[in-house]
Amino acid sequence: MTGSVQHIRAEAGEPYEVFHTDCPARDVVDHVTSRWGIWVLISLRSNDLRFYELRESIQGVSEKMLAQTLRALVQDGLVWREVEPTTPPQVTYGLTEFGRDVGEPLTELFDRITRRLSPRNAG
Description:
Elements: H1 24-32, H2 37-43, E1 49-50, H3 51-57, H4 63-75, E2 79-84, E3 90-95, H5 97-116
Antiparallel strand pairs: 1-3, 2-3
């Protein structure tokens, strides 16, 4: 590193420097692993869902936090958003190819955890 300048992907093919605070890949990781980001990706793994369906599938998330999480994931290119011009507008979300690629190991992690947990009533 030269001086205080951090170089982030100066040339095509160079890896991202993910340990630098201003690395764009780090932002995507932060969004994916946020409190609600992982649940959005897992919820969308098999079906495209409308906003209210997502809210119902992820218990405990507020509308505000779900909207913020979706906005970040759409901006990162992990989730697509489609608005139908109805009254009120119907907004549907789904995973992009990038979102499916990122979501696959998260789904596998989720499945491994739930397989290894003791049964709920086995206290």
